[in-house]
Structure formats: C-alpha cells, structure tokens
C-alpha cells in the first residue's frame, strides 16, 4: 500500500509542470545532471558564465585591481629575468654595438682606433643602461601578453582577432627596423660623420696623418644608437598602421594612392628633423625604406579589401 507521498499527483512531482522550479532538472531525465544556469543579467543582457568573470558574476573593482596587480608583478618578474640574462651577456651586447664605430675608424685610416669614457662612473652607468634597454626589448612580448590578458575580456571577438594578428607582426617589424639600422644605416652614417671635418687638407697640410682625430664617447654613441633604434622601429610600423586604417574603413586605399607624393615629401622632412645625424646619406637610407613600407601598406590594404569583398 502506497503512502501519501507516493500517491501524489504526477503534476506535482519534482521536475513536473507544477513542481518547484528551483528543483526542476535536478533529478530524473535519464540521469542527466542539472542544466547550466545562465550568468547574471548585466544591463538587461544575460551574460554566460564563462564571460561574466569568476563564478559567473561580474568582477568587482577590487578584483580587477587584484588581477591588475598580479599581472604587473608577473611583468616585472619577466623584466627582472631578462635583466639578469642581459647582465650576464651584456659585454657581448656592448661589444657588438661598439664594434661598428671601431671598424669604421679603422677603415678610415686611424692607426689606433679607440673609444673613451669621460667620467669615473660613466662606464658603469652606460653598461647598466644598455642592459636595461636590452632587457626591455627581450621581455616586451611577455609583458604585452600580460597586458593582453587583462584587456581581452572587454574586447569584441573581431577586436581580439586583429590584436592577435597585429601584435606579433608589430614586434617583428620593430626588430626588422633595428636590424636595418644596425647593418645598413649606422655604418654609412658613421663613415660620413667620422670622416667629416678631420681631413688634413682643411689646414693646408700635406700629410697622410689626420690633424684632428675623432674619439667617440661611449655613452653618447650608445644614446644615439638607442634613439635611432626606437625611431627605425616606429617607422617600420607604417604598413600595420595603414592596414589598420584601411581595414576599419577610416581611410581608403585610394586615399593613400592619391596622396603618395605628399606623404613622401612630408616623411622626408620629418625624418630630417628626427634623425640625429643630419647627414644626407643617412637621410636617404632612412627615407628609402619608408617609401617601400608605404607601398607595402597600400599592397596589404588592397589584399585585405579584396579578401573582405570576396567573403
């Protein structure tokens, strides 16, 4: 004989039409587990649990700050690790950079090429400065990943897709600009600068030796090299900047083609001001890749536009 609980109306059974809604789906159904509950409603929109922060809820300001703090700490740890690595190999890094002026002086006929420090602490400060800059370049991809992890939650899927494409390309183009400076621009610029104003004929003297010798100061040369590296790294970002404007529809490819000559004249004028050396040979070497990068940006814009129309 069934008890009162066992003779209950089926419509009142748990999970039935008249049952407790909070208990619905908790039993029966061929052993299926409870249905996944939606996340909290934010501004009238139900946010899925996997996009609404921990435990399916919107993160508080304190939690955002805690996440930012943890990512900043990790970024500093990456930078510290890169700094230790650069301090270990800093002599090789400095030797590779200072090798260029030494070889140029030797090529110009200096019997005993040499570089110099002008203060007791200049050597240590310059050595440490170079290690810091090199460690920042090495750790920048990992630091950028932490920044990306913090801001990615607030971006749309198409924005995430563009950043995943642009970020590695931007880093590679920056390194390409630094390599172009090291292998092509600096040797030519140094030959002109070291040779200018040191010829014996300036004094009306017929001699094979130089009356004036150029002795580069290490700290000033490294500062020049770092500034030039940053400039060339930024210049090499030009195709990505153009591709961004074309892809977002802000500026068309036809606009860049129409104002090609204006850009070339303007870029040469800007580079003439930004380039610390100021000589014509360096200006030509720096301006030539800018023109090629500009044409490359137009080509990438055409391909992106064509692909979007095809899709």
Provide an overview of this structure.
Strand 1 and strand 2 (45-46) form a beta hairpin. This protein has a domain at 61-236. Strands 1-2 form a two-stranded antiparallel ribbon. Helix 4 crosses helix 5 (218-235) and helix 4 packs antiparallel against helix 9 (280-310). It has 311 residues and is mainly alpha-helical. The protein has helices at 61-88, 90-107, 122-151, 157-195, 218-235, 238-247, 253-258, 260-274, 280-310, and strands at residues 41-42, 45-46. The chain is built from 9 helices and 2 strands. It is 63% helix and 1% strand. The model is unreliable at 1-56 (pLDDT under 50).
Q: How many DSSP H or I helices?
A: 9
Task: Supply the helix-strand structural class.
Answer: mainly alpha
The percent range for strand residues is: under 5%
Helix content: 55-70%
Instruction: Report on the biggest sheet.
Output: 2 strands, antiparallel
The residue ranges in which pLDDT falls below 50 over 5 or more consecutive positions are 1-56
* 3D shape: flat
Rounded to the nearest angstrom, the radius of gyration is: 32 Å
Strand order of the largest sheet: 1-2
Write the element-wise H/E pattern from the N-terminal end onward: EEHHHHHHHHH
Give the total of beta strands.
2
């Amino acid at each position: 004989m069934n008890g009162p609980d066992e003779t209950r109306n089926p419509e009142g059974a748990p999970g039935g039409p008249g049952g407790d809604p909070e208990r619905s789906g908790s039993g029966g159904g061929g052993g299926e587990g409870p249905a996944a509950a939606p996340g909290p409603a934010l501004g009238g929109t139900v946010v899925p649990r996997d996009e609404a922060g921990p435990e399916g809820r919107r993160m508080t300001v304190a939690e955002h700050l805690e996440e930012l703090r943890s990512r900043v700490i990790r970024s500093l740890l990456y930078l510290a690790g890169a700094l230790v690595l650069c301090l270990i190999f800093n002599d090789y890094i400095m030797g590779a950079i200072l090798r260029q002026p030494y070889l140029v002086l030797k090529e110009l006929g200096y019997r005993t090429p040499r570089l110099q420090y002008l203060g007791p602490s200049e050597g240590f400060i310059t050595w440490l400065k170079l290690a810091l800059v090199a460690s920042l370049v090495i750790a920048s991809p990992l630091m950028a990943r932490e920044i990306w992890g913090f801001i990615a939650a607030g971006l749309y899927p198409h924005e995430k897709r563009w950043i995943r494409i642009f970020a590695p390309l931007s880093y590679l183009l920056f390194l390409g600009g630094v390599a172009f400076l090291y292998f092509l621009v600096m040797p030519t610029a140094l030959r002109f600068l070291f040779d200018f104003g040191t010829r014996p004929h300036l004094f009306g003297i017929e001699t094979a030796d130089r009356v004036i010798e150029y002795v580069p100061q290490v700290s000033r040369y490294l500062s020049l090299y770092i500034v030039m590296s940053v400039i060339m790294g930024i210049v090499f970002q030009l195709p990505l900047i153009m591709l961004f404007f074309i892809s977002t529809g802000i500026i068309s490819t036809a606009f860049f083609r129409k104002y090609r000559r204006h850009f070339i004249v303007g870029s040469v004028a800007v580079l003439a001001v930004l380039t610390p050396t100021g000589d014509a040979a360096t200006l030509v070497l720096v301006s030539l890749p800018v023109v090629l990068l500009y044409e490359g940006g137009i080509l990438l814009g055409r391909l992106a536009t064509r692909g979007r129309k095809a899709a």
